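Q: Two folds, back to back.
A: First:
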Amino acid sequence: MCYNCGCGIPTDDHGKGHAGVDPGGKAITDKTFEAAGIAFGMQTYTSKINTRDLLNRTV
């Protein structure tokens, strides 16, 4: 959930489920980026880079 709360643990969903992976999951975690990458036929790293780039343009 590091991507939501800033805890620094990108694998911990804090009991809220992994968004895009678990039914009703709310925490954005490394599993979220992995699932997104698979869905679009890209590497997890690329999914993260694309997300970062979009955030940099919209924040």
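A: Second:
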Amino acid sequence: MQVIYPKDIYSLKADFINCIIYFNMISEKFKEREEKRQQGFKVIYDYTMGVLWLGAGLFFLLNKYLMKGFAFDSLTSSIFGIACVCYGVFRLYRGFSAKK
């Protein structure tokens, strides 16, 4: 039977604590890299959605001049077009401000 001395137990305890600290440091670095990567994707997503919402807003605002065959109500399409343009500008602003 093997004898375990107190100094061996302390050594194992210290190694275990050092291992936990090391893995905690690695996981924090991973979290920082992952948050930075997700932030970059969020900026690209905000720009893309901003451009799409602006395009939709301009389509609904200008459809009575561009396409004569569509039977959209003028007031409804104008209100929805203005709302789309405002939301598109907001998404572009949010993407621009998050980039800083």
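Q: And?
A: DSSP finds two helices and no strands in the chain.
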